[in-house]
């Protein structure tokens, strides 16, 4: 029987201190996978942090991943392949 899962991609924000620059904000992507089976309801996350310091770049990629319902199996490859 095929498992039913809902996948959602979201932008995440991190702020790190860089010695010469001070606080630097960068953006990454979280892949949230929720099992839809009532007897085994669970949520798992996979995160790729620090993709870019430009939020628009990451927002665009998140939109593409969600629009095309990207398979989480290829999450890392899709991010790598779609960076400028």
Topology, please?
Layout: E1 5-18, E2 22-35, E3 43-52, H1 55-67, H2 75-81
Characterize this entry briefly.
Helix content is 24%, strand content 45%. By secondary structure, the chain is α+β, with helices and mostly antiparallel strands.
Question: Would you kindly provide a written description of the structure presented here, covering whatever features stand out?
Answer:
Helix content is 24%, strand content 45%. By secondary structure, it is an alpha+beta fold. It has one domain. It has a 3-stranded antiparallel sheet, covered by helices on one side.
Biggest sheet: strands side by side, in what order?
Answer: 1-2-3
**Proportion of residues in extended strands:** over 45%
Number of strands: 3
- Structural class estimated from helices and strands: alpha+beta
Helix-strand string: EEEHH
Relative helix content: 10-25%
How many domains? 1
Q: Per the principal axes of the C-alpha atoms, what is the gross shape?
A: elongated
Total helical segments: 2
The mean pLDDT is 88
Q: Which ranges are low-confidence, i.e. pLDDT below 50, for 5 or more consecutive residues?
A: none
Biggest sheet overview: 3 strands, antiparallel
Cα(first) to Cα(last) distance is 39 Å
| Structural Rg | 15 Å
